[in-house]
């Protein structure tokens, strides 16, 4: 899945959810080291746990952050999957 971010240095996040767990998380642009770290840390974690840990994190008063945008993207995918 691909998600276009809003209000962050990264412009897009791609990831898969397999058996409820996050896989292949990749950020386009942004702070490379930090985003590689986030991607590595959330790899294989349950999607709902990632949302609980990352949702609401703020970056420099922007009202969002790359981790928050990942949480929003996961929520959006899960809601779509539940609606099907």
TrEMBL record:
<protein>
    <recommendedName>
        <fullName>ribonucleoside-diphosphate reductase</fullName>
        <ecNumber>1.17.4.1</ecNumber>
    </recommendedName>
</protein>
<dbReference type="Pfam" id="PF12637">
    <property type="entry name" value="TSCPD"/>
</dbReference>
<dbReference type="InterPro" id="IPR024434">
    <property type="entry name" value="TSCPD_dom"/>
</dbReference>
<feature type="domain" description="TSCPD">
    <location>
        <begin position="4"/>
        <end position="76"/>
    </location>
</feature>
<dbReference type="GO" id="GO:0004748">
    <property type="term" value="F:ribonucleoside-diphosphate reductase activity, thioredoxin disulfide as acceptor"/>
</dbReference>
<keyword id="KW-0547">Nucleotide-binding</keyword>
<comment type="similarity">
    <text>Belongs to the ribonucleoside diphosphate reductase class-2 family.</text>
</comment>
<dbReference type="GO" id="GO:0071897">
    <property type="term" value="P:DNA biosynthetic process"/>
</dbReference>
<dbReference type="GO" id="GO:0000166">
    <property type="term" value="F:nucleotide binding"/>
</dbReference>
<dbReference type="InterPro" id="IPR023806">
    <property type="entry name" value="CHP03905"/>
</dbReference>
<keyword id="KW-0237">DNA synthesis</keyword>
